[in-house]
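Long-time lurker. I teach an intro course on protein structure, and each term I like to show students one example going from raw sequence to a predicted 3D structure in token notation. This year I'd like something fresh instead of my usual example. Would anyone be willing to generate the tokens for the chain below so I can use it in lecture? Attribution to the forum is fine with me.
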Amino acid sequence: MSISDDLFILANLFNLDLLSPTNPVSTRYSDTMGKSNSVINLMFLCSGLNELNNHSIHPDWCLILDHIPLTVTIPIEEEFFQSSKLFLPKKSKEEELFVMEVVDIFKFLDTLILSNQESLEQVVNSLALRINQAWNTNARKINITRHSKKWWNKDCN
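-- Reply from a regular --
Happy to contribute to a lecture. Here you go:
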């Protein structure tokens, strides 16, 4: 068994794969006359990541070094981070009004028209719409910050 076999066994233990370069060229240039250039720089990354399955070798970046830089492009997807939300503070006037509106919605719900699945779906959809409207009317918009955690209180300020 060779040292390179040991390297691949270790890489496998850590769930790593040897990447294939997009431009296979030597990565070490010998400064000794008569010695050939070699591929000594290798790159291993997490197994099974198709978007990270190869790297680039940059011979033009080496300057005075004898080793060539390797790079891999890591795609970063844009993510949406919610920065605000609707909120009803507990035991607030807004919460009280919301609960009163929802109680009224149920109190005046017409269930006499429920004769089939279609009419049930209409009533349920109408109920959901009216509760959502009550929420939007009474809830306050708050900005989410690092101080939005439940443990954060006025004493922390």
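Some talking points for your students: The chain has two domains: 3-71, 84-156. Helices lie at 3-13, 93-107, 117-138.
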